[in-house]
Amino acid sequence: MAWAGNTQPLWELRRVSKHFPGVKALDDVSVTIRPGEIHGLVGENGSGKSTLIKCLSGVHQPDEGILLHRGRSVVLPNPHAAQLMGVATIYQEFSLVPSLTVAENLYLGRLPQTRGRLVDWGAMREGAHRILETLGLEIDPNSVVGNLSVAEQQLVEIAKSVSTDATLLIMDEPTTALGLPETKRLHKLIRTLASHGRAVLYVSHRLDDVLEVSHRITVLKDGRVVATRPNSGMTHRDVIRLMVGSEIEEYYPKEHHASDTPLLTVRGLRTAAGVTDATFTVHRGEVLGLAGMLGSGRTAIARAIFGLEPLVDGVIEFKGRRLRLRSPREAIAAGLGSGTVPRCLPGAAR
Amino acid sequence: MTKVSDAHVSGGQPTSVDGFEIARNPWSWLMRGGPFIALSVLVLYLAFASPRFLGFGNLMNVLRQVAINAILAVGQTVVILSAGIDLSVGAILALSASVGAVAMAYWEWNVWLSMLVALLVGVICGMVNGIVIAKGRIPDFIATIGMMSAARGLALIVTDGLPVPSHLTALTLRAGLPSELIWLGSGVVLGVPVPAIVAALMVVFGWFILRYTSFGRALYAVGGNREAARVSGISVERTKILVYTFSGLMAGIAGLVLTGRLNSANALMAEGAELQSIAAVVIGGTNLFGGEGGVGGTIIGVLIMGVLNNGLNLMNVSAFWQRVIMGAIIVGVVVFDQWRRRRFGD
User: Fold this and answer.
1) DSSP states along B212-280
2) Are A264 and A305 in contact (CB under 8 A)?
3) Which among A51, A175, B41, B186 is placed 20 to 30 Å from A280, CA to CA?
4) Are B225 and A96 in contact (CB under 8 A)?
5) What was the pLDDT predicted at A349?
6) Share of chain A above pLDDT 70, in %
7) Which of residues 242-281 of A touch B (CB under 8 A)?
């Protein structure tokens, strides 16, 4: 393990509680984070992970309890104060400005200035180049962030927090948008940072990722800490048991309803948005999941079937009839339904 | 396990956003400068259609006419970049001008002091806008529409609803407005109208602030991704207040220049100027939702509107039709720009 066992904690939440109208988001929570430690934080939705992060990053202030930084009690009235204390938070939603360059995003809120208090563009570009190089990222500091891929944007995001000389990096669901190779690359980066003495609070739904990279894992349930355990010897099942509070065989029991009658057939689908040759069949009673990375075309396919994107080529058959949809109105008339578009494939109803 | 038979999905790559297509498309560089091309085409057409258009005198005329809108539009650009909108610039212009003119003509204050007070009025109005928006947490639209009404009302109170100086009061005055102010609005330096010079200075000033000050960069962040700005430690409130204060200052300057040009101020001057300035900013390619654009585009937008006005005059198009054509052009340019962005990326 990279972290030394008994050093003074870098950060400590001591008996912290936070109420919101109607909910106790955090209830008497105590957590320690040590320098050089990768600390996994897991829990179901609504277990208080986000609130805990926000208390540490100065967005929320605890109602009860205290925060200790290197043993000293501190108050973080706003995110800026947390930043000054070396806390950098990488949020789920990217905190990048899409219309600005990588360099400017890296220095957002603390642009280098010349002696005349003007923005020093030269120093900024140089600094950005150096930061990216140190982290082994091949990204042009002058490119506009909105033109980068999601994975690249996230790496910029991390580079940004590292460059603030943060001692604690909080990562909220860092791998959601990443594929396997990118996740590996991210974990490697995190280990490097930890070996340099920075602490990482790693918050994720993906237990495998947490188990792979964390030194210790804290499990939250209903705003309370269930346990903080060293990772060694923990299994996926142990973590789930702590999260849910009881052993369950499968998260969601699966039922079989699928028949052999094709309901929706998609062949050779092509759209201007970049879908090429999508072919699949959904049977009556079947739930078909479309998996893929952000930008891989999942949503584009669903939108095309639902008549939200014009087809360049391809055939959509529904109940044996060929559909030529030009609008969601026609799709609904034909008997297709859609959940909120980004979330799922139009559930072929009726 | 759910049965998934012959499911074969091959999604495409994300294209248009990737910059790939854009780089390959030989027309992209041309399309990028959309507003500039529109202006060039307009100038070229008018140069052929009207022999007088390219004359030095006429061009200086155009510059004199666009100066007020240019000054206001610099302020409006800054506001819109921060994802706001300032509907009160015309009213603030009128209030500053009225206070300045009353101070000079009736109270017989020193001309420089009066000008300073006029600018201060603009700054205060703008600051009030910003504070109300930032602290009151209300939409920019509502706050500035309130200021629009209130500032006009105050201007009516200050001027008693009469032009300053007016025919009723002119007899009792030794003179009208001081010559320094008249020079600001009607003077000429080396053949170039002073209002145009003032406007040019403001454009450079605005560009410099946007490019080289932390405030300027911060407002791109606030407009482009407010949450990102906040978590990066940028004070959104402070930025908003400064943005509107700047716009108020520009309105004050425009008020002095316009008073000098008209040789008079009144509470209802520059009506509709706020919409003109917004139109210029949007024609110039600044994103109405904030974060993208700049004064470079805005000045092109201002010139498109000014050249069009001038050209229609030269071609003897009736003033009534001019309004119709102007409206169509404003919408047309923005529709084209939106299409261009979708098709060719930014």
Assistant:
1) HSHHHHHHHHHHH-HHHHHHTT--HHHHHHHHHHHHHHHHHHHHHHHHHHHT-B-TTTTTTHHHHHHHH
2) yes
3) A175
4) yes
5) 39
6) 88
7) 254, 256, 258, 271, 273-281
Residue in the block written with tokens 């044996």: A320
Cα B212 from Cα B210, distance rounded (Å): 6
pLDDT, one tens digit per residue, over B116-156 is 999 999 999 999 999 999 999 999 999 999 999 999 999 99
Q: Supply the DSSP string of A156-224, one letter for each residue.
A: HHHHHHHHTT-SEEEEESTTTT--HHHHHHHHHHHHHHHHTT-EEEEE-S-HHHHHHH-SEEEEEETTE
Cβ-Cβ contacts under 8 Å between A and B: the total is: 140
Q: Are B81 and B217 in contact (CB under 8 A)?
A: no
- C-alpha B89/C-alpha B80 separation (Å) is 13
**How far B211 CA sits from the closest chain A CA (Å)?**
8
The mean pLDDT value for B325-334 works out to 84
How close does chain A come to B247, measured CA to CA in Å?
21
Encode pLDDT of A77-88 as tens digits.
988 888 888 898
- From chain A, the residues in CB contact with B213 under 8 A are 117-119
Contacts with A, B 30-59, CB within 8 Å: none
pTM of the shown model: 0.74
Give the whole-angstrom CA distance, residue B289 versus residue B6. Answer: 45
